[in-house]
Write a structure and sequence with these properties.
With about 220 residues, the protein is an alpha/beta fold. The chain has a single domain, classed as 3-Layer(aba) Sandwich (Rossmann fold), CATH 3.40.50.300. It contains 7 helices and 9 strands; from the N terminus they run βββαββαβαααβαβαβ. The strands form 2 sheets. The chain has a 5-stranded parallel β-sheet with strand order 6-7-8-3-9, with helices on both faces. Strands 2-1-4-5 form a 4-stranded antiparallel β-sheet, with helices on one face. Bound molecules: adenosine-5'-triphosphate (ATP) and magnesium ion (MG). Adenosine-5'-triphosphate binds next to strand 2 and helix 1.
């Protein structure tokens, strides 16, 4: 078995209090290994985004542990969580969240600079990533000068900027047409196998889930 990248043990998570309490997770556990690709499926409101935010340390479980490469993020402070997120986890949202005033290349370079990589190396790596998502020649385009599918490909490249051990995606194809979903998935799955990252995607799209190793259904 490959190395364990994400290990969630017995988490509980609820929102609200008293009569209004909503229990989203009760004693939930999940282990993901290096190179695995997993789809997170389930009805709207079943807790997919909540789980992804917990894994990224953007939200906290009420109890239980969440380990990324053996480090329990529930025991880290805000700065330590931010650093772990920047270096170990690549996140892609439904809406690309690229910085509008930066070019495609600069958007990919930024997380590497924040992690302390020197500029020349960060630019070299970002150019290579743009090539891997088939966007050579678009280095200097800002997000509004790119198509929806191209923006999502820049978002994948940005997520890979610091060579993370896992890629976490929340409905990354929610805004793309059928043809672009297929292109996106082909590129993504190539990237996953080249870099041997663990992939976890929340999705409603069977064109996405059918390409993954296994599916996890939340109720
Ligand atoms: N900050 C919050 N405060 C209160 N309730 C919340 C909060 N975040 C999420 N919830 C509730 O928790 C439940 C799970 O939400 P979540 O966003 O994880 O669902 P989801 O599976 O991602 O749904 P979708 O497919 O629509 O994106 C929902 O009922 C939601 O209303
Ligand atoms: Mg969601």
């Amino acid at each position: 078995m490959n190395k364990e990248i994400i290990s969630i043990e017995n988490i509980d998570k609820s929102f609200g209090e008293g009569d209004e309490i909503l229990q989203v997770f009760k004693n939930f556990s999940l282990n993901l290994h290096q190179g695995e690709s997993i789809g997170l499926v389930g009805a709207s409101g079943s807790g997919k985004s909540t789980l992804l935010h917990i894994i990224c340390g953007l939200d906290r479980p009420d109890s239980g542990s969440v380990k990324i490469q053996g480090i329990d993020i529930t025991e880290l402070n805000y700065d330590e969580r931010s650093e772990l997120r920047n270096t170990e986890i690549g996140f892609v949202y439904q809406f690309h969240h690229l910085l509008p005033e930066l070019t495609a290349l600069e958007n990919i370079v930024l997380p590497a600079l924040l992690a302390g990589t020197n500029q020349a190396e960060a630019i070299k790596n970002a150019s290579l990533l743009l090539e891997q998502v088939n966007l050579s020649g678009k280095e200097n385009n800002t997000p509004n000068e790119l198509s929806g599918g191209e923006r999502q490909r820049v978002a994948i490249a940005r997520a890979m900027s610091n060579n993370p051990s896992c890629l976490i995606m929340d409905e990354p194809t929610g805004n793309l047409d059928t043809k672009n979903v297929e292109n996106f998935m082909t590129l993504l799955m190539d990237m996953v196998s080249i870099k041997n990252v663990t992939l976890l995607i929340a999705t409603h799209d069977t064109k996405v889930s059918s390409r993954l190793d296994r599916l996890l259904s939340l109720e």
